[in-house]
Amino acid sequence: MKLGSFKKLLFISMLIFGLSECDSGSSEVAGPKINESVNQKENFRLEIFNTENDAENINASITYTGEKNEIDVYHGGSHVIYFKYYKDGEILTTGTRSDMRSKATLIRNEPLVIDFDESELAEFEPGEFEIEAVADFGVGADITNEVEYEMSVSTTLSLLD
Fold it and tell me: What is the C-alpha to C-alpha distance for residues 44 and 135, in angstroms, rounded to an integer?
């Protein structure tokens, strides 16, 4: 087989494989990764609170539950937790971060609480929203681009006229 024929065969194989992975009838629906209000991963617990079905009172917390008195976690953005929100299965904000240069110190068994900014929903029509709190972070001093922990929790919020 000539090298040119090999390249053609390789291209056709990749094309067929790529097309076979496409599924226009996908049953996967956009939305939060985890539809739970608490997520524990090793020594970290992420929680979201929505006790009054009121956007002004939604917040999320992350708690370190390990043996050390405190631990430094490195994350992107200004807080270790950020929020994504969805309506009718469609994501309304991407909430992505790539720079892991910010640091937060978590004290054992003391929740670090971040409030949801309800003004972010003001531009949307009333309805039912899924609010997802996400914490993606690393532990250690030399992890500027590495995520060790990816955690999320979510809650439903109904906003009426």
Answer: 10
Contact 134, 82 (CB under 8 A): yes
Separation CA 78–CA 63 (nearest Å): 17
Is the backbone of residue 3 left (phi > 0), alpha (psi -120 to 50) or beta? Answer: alpha
Q: How confident is the model at residue 97 (pLDDT cuts 50, 70, 90)?
A: low
Q: Which of 139, 158, 15 is nearest to 87 (CA)?
A: 158
Predicted TM-score (pTM) of the model is 0.74
Q: How far apart are the first and last CA of the chain?
A: 69
Contact 58, 131 (CB under 8 A): yes
Q: What three-state secondary structure class fits 57?
A: helix
Report CA dihedral (133, 134, 139, 142) to the nearest 10 degrees: -130
